[in-house]
Write a structure and sequence with these properties.
The chain is α/β, with parallel strands linked by helices. The chain is 40% helix and 16% strand. β13, α9 and β14 form a beta-alpha-beta unit.
């Protein structure tokens, strides 16, 4: 097949770019041909390019939408595999010319803010179906920023994406949780659950955890990610275990300074190395005893858990969103049913208090990671793309 990958960025450092940087070369290695249509300028600076240099790339910002679509048409793709795209005119142009399979990495088209969360009177997941009535609760329930202009801009974008959902040949998501979300919004479009993949699990036994044990957080530092709950949880776990723990919180975001202050107040030895990638990120994972995923919001999947598991690092996390698809309580970590610092702290204790149990979780993490392979992901994805490509789109419809 000739597969046109559509994404906002040709280069980046986020999860979508990391996903495509692994998938595109693997599809080429399987005998497919790939090209990229991207919205952002090709000269944009970022640590990661989503496709090898020899893969054709057509830039909307560089050449204009009509010219980029014409370049893609000359390449003659069989199917489009679309990802993040904030410009709906690009998406509409793709749908006019080719069958499009859309991978939803978040809640685009099903939520105004994309957070799928209420913040008032307490932070909890939202189960509403997207529509104009969402505007009535956005500000009172603090679904996003306390700014009516932002709300209206976000609603227009979400509504435009929502209107396109029935036109996709198929929608791909990473978890059953996300499958249910999109299936109820577009009941006539096939929604395929294709779990994400871990890096190859290592055959070498991981080194024993350092003393004191390290609890690792990797992610954007916002209230939705629950870093404040994690700091309080580590403080509780230290008291219960009767020994110190080390907390490493890697990432950036608006909550960084408040989490740093909270750690000092709670007597937690916390380090904040900033945004990390590559060898530094890998080293932090290898040195960790536990990965913590304290998200309050319904994570679409939670890939960091599998990344750590491949290195023999079990996880503790709240049972929200797609996390339950890869984290099995007592097998590769501890799943926490209540979104509360006390419960999370008790989970840290449960994982670390007994050396034999910890080793069981550690081995379970590696075993579960081996089930989530790139080959398995690609085999399912190929079938979806091939089915979509079988019925071409009449030009201009």
């Amino acid at each position: 097949m000739k597969i046109l990958i559509a994404n906002e960025a040709l280069v980046g450092g986020g999860g979508v770019e990391s996903y495509l940087a692994a998938v595109i070369p693997a599809l080429v290695a399987r005998g497919h041909r790939a090209a990229v249509l991207h919205l952002n300028p090709a000269a944009q600076q970022a640590p990661l390019r989503i496709a090898p240099e020899d893969v054709p790339a057509f830039g909307v910002a560089d050449a204009g939408l009509d010219a980029a679509l014409a370049q893609a048409a000359a390449w003659q793709p069989d199917v489009v595999f679309a990802h993040n795209m904030r410009a709906m005119d690009v998406e509409r142009g793709l749908l006019q010319h080719w069958p499009v399979v859309k991978m939803m990495h978040g809640y685009a088209g099903t939520c105004v803010s994309g957070q799928k969360m209420f913040s008032v009177p307490s932070r909890r997941p939202c189960t509403r179906e997207f529509g104009p009535a969402c505007l009535a609760v956005y500000l009172p329930r603090r679904c996003g920023q306390w700014r009516p202009g932002v709300m209206l801009d976000q609603y227009r974008t979400a509504a435009a994406q929502h209107a396109l959902l029935p036109r996709y040949r198929a929608i791909v998501v990473a978890s059953g949780h996300m499958n249910r979300e999109y299936a109820r919004h577009v009941p006539g479009v096939p929604v395929h659950t294709i779990p994400l993949f871990a890096p190859p699990a290592e055959d070498v036994e991981p080194a024993p955890p350092a003393d004191p044990p390290t609890v690792l957080f990797l992610g954007r530092m916002t209230p939705l990610k629950g870093g404040d709950l994690l700091v309080r949880a580590v403080a509780r776990a230290q008291d219960r275990l009767g020994r110190s723990l080390r907390l490493v919180m890697a990432g950036v975001g608006p909550s960084l300074e408040s989490w740093r202050t909270l750690a000092r107040t709670c007597g937690v030895d916390a380090q904040f190395p900033g945004w990390v990638s590559g060898a530094v990120r890998d080293r932090l994972i290898r040195e960790a005893a536990l990965l913590a995923v304290p998200s309050r919001w319904p994570e679409p999947f939670g890939l960091t858990g599998l990344e750590a598991a491949a290195r023999g690092v079990p996880a503790v996390a709240f049972a929200v969103g797609g996390i339950t698809e890869w984290l099995h309580d007592g097998i590769n970590g501890i799943l926490v049913p209540d979104v509360h610092a006390t419960a999370l702290g008790d989970a840290v204790v449960a994982a670390l208090a007994d050396a034999q149990r910890y080793e069981t979780l550690r081995q379970g993490a590696r075993r579960v990671a081996r089930e989530f392979t790139l080959d398995r992901h690609l085999s399912h994805l190929e079938r979806v793309l091939e089915t979509a490509a079988m019925i071409p789109v009449a030009h201009g419809t």
